Amino acid sequence: MVDFLIFCMATVGLTAILVDGKIFAPFREWLEKRARSPKDRRTWCGFLLDILTCYQCCGFWSGLFCGVFLTVSRFINIFEVIYLKTLYTTSGQSDETLHLLFAPLFWLMCGLVGSFLATVYLVFVELIYAKTMLYRRTNPEPPQEDVTSEHDHE
């Protein structure tokens, strides 16, 4: 359960940084300059620009990356378990390796979950922003009173 929460937060955080983060703004601007024409949009610059300007696209690739990272970190732990079992038991077979066959399917599912989470995050943030702007428009700040002292009028 903790791994899933970390996966969710990492995927949404990575997506938000890549799509809206100031640290990647110069890179996105550079890509926009390189992919101005429709012909240039079909290059790798256009592909990266499409990913880095779309929450759903970037969420998929962020989820895929985080899923691979999660699997590799678990694989290292499983490798240690298999290695230790092989050292201390006579049977060299282990059932833990079976789930490694399903790793590409797991990565695809992580990408899909990442795409969904990034879209939900964007809708939630936009909803908060819209409610905040609506509140400011319907409840304007009261005009500031003139706070000049009586001595200024004399």
Q: What is the helix content?
A: over 70%
Question: Which class best fits the helix and strand makeup?
Answer: mainly alpha
Determine Rg (CA atoms, Å): 26 Å
Query: In one word, what is the shape?
Result: flat
Mean pLDDT: 76
Indicate how many domains the architecture comprises: 1
Number of helices: 6
Through-space gap between termini: 73 Å
Strand count, sense and barrel status of the largest sheet are: none
* Low-confidence regions: none
Compute the number of strand runs.
0
Describe this structure as you would to a colleague.
The chain has one domain. It is an all-alpha fold and about 150 residues long. It is flat and about 75 Å long. The longest helix is centred in the last third of the chain and has 36 residues. Helix content is about 75%, strand content about 0%.
Notable characteristics:
mainly alpha; 154 residues
Task: Describe the structure in brief.
This protein has six helices and no strands. The chain is mostly helical. It has one domain.
Which SSEs are present, and which pair or pack?
Blueprint: H1 2-20, H2 25-34, H3 44-52, H4 55-88, H5 103-138, H6 150-153
Helix pairs in contact: 1-4, 1-5, 2-3, 4-5
